[in-house]
Amino acid sequence: MKELKINSEGINHSAINLGSLDELKDYSYMHPKRKQEVKGKVFIGEILKSSSAEISFTVFPPHTEMPFFHQHKNNEEIYVVIKGSGQFQIDDSLFDISEGSVIRVSPEGKRTYRNNSDSPLTFLCIQNKMGSLDQFNVEDGCLAECENLWEKE
Amino acid sequence: MKELKINSEGINHSAINLGSLDELKDYSYMHPKRKQEVKGKVFIGEILKSSSAEISFTVFPPHTEMPFFHQHKNNEEIYVVIKGSGQFQIDDSLFDISEGSVIRVSPEGKRTYRNNSDSPLTFLCIQNKMGSLDQFNVEDGCLAECENLWEKE
User: Fold this and answer.
1) Burial class (CB within 10 angstroms; exposed 0-12, middle 13-18, buried 19+) of A143
2) Residue ranges of domains in chain A
3) Top-confidence residue, B38 or B89
4) Contact A102 B16 (CB under 8 A)
């Protein structure tokens, strides 16, 4: 089982490197309630000290499916498919997913998915509190003065 | 210039497909203040109707760099490197990034990055409100009853 390691940290940041996204299958996650090891899944919100998002990476083997539907209490989820293909169901909508698919699900959405292909399905899932974003991009960002370090290398 | 299209939508979800992540260079973004077209960048928060996250995908060509540092007012950013390699600087920390790197930056962090390699650098950037997440995973998720539609196909 692969371990997560911080590779840069400062007062305003934390950074890790998961390694090749084809090797995510070497991570695993111990489900805290079911006490079951889930292979090919890694959560990174805690190690990154994120205060706004939980993010997981998952590799779903060929011809496997989530054995249940789930909902959330407060959090919106956004799934981003990095590689492979499969199907996603939310409530009474069933649709195909593949590399580049991005799916937003409200807390109430009953969701499940499967990999019905012959190749691994790799995706990330971002979990944030519904309704929490007030402003973004040019409203939230601003230029900053800082000495560029790579110019000194 | 490629257009974004919804490919499934319901009361609790919105889904798009950006297509192959190697083809992200065909998207572009019109900077609302500088009135400049930024190639290889696409924001998806609005089309997904996300209320908690802004997400952008970027392909940064070989040997290019951000010409400035930036900070945020309220939002944390998380960068996820999907392909390629480069360097990231936050405040006085400069470090290498590559496929599988994930970097969390607090609003105050002065950040910039470059692609100092011979291949494209592809990453996504997730923007959420600092301090907004109260609970996640098994605390926030719960099982749901729903009829499985792929079993009827």
Assistant:
1) exposed
2) 6-133
3) B89
4) yes
Length of chain B: 153
Question: HSE on the CB side for A24, CA within 13 Å?
Answer: 26
- Residue contact A105–B13, C-beta within 8 A: yes
pLDDT tens, residue by residue, A88-115: 999 999 999 999 999 999 999 999 999 9
ipTM over 0.85: yes
Q: Is A144 close to B110, i.e. CB distance below 8 A?
A: yes
Comparing CA positions, the residue from B108, B119, B9 lying closest to residue B63 is B119
Cβ atoms of B127 and B75 within 8 Å: the answer is yes
Q: Is B30 on the interface with A (CB under 8 A)?
A: no
**What letter represents residue A9's amino acid?**
E
pLDDT digits (tens, 9 = 90+) for B93-135: 999 999 999 999 999 999 999 999 999 999 999 999 998 888 8
Query: Cβ separation of B19 and A106 shorter than 8 Å?
Result: no
For residue A89, give the nearest of B31, B78, B148 by CB distance.
B148
Neighbours of B13 (CB within 10 A): 25
Q: How far is A20 from B61, CA to CA, in rounded Å?
A: 20
Mutate which of B21, B50, B83 to disrupt the A interface (most A C-beta within 10 Å)? Answer: B50
Query: What is the b/e burial string over A53-91, where b = at least 16 CB atoms within 10 angstroms of the residue's CB?
Result: bbbbbbbbeeeebeeebbbbebbbbbbbbbbbbbbbbbb
Could you tell me which of A1, A6, A48 has the C-alpha nearest to residue A27? A1
Asked if A44 and B137 count as a contact pair (C-beta separation under 8 A), the reply is: no
Q: Which of A101, A133, A148 to mutate to test the interface with B (most CBs of B within 10 A)?
A: A133
Give the domain B55-133 fold: Jelly Rolls (2.60.120)
pTM to 2 decimals?
0.95
Which fold would CATH assign to domain A6-133?
A: Jelly Rolls (2.60.120)
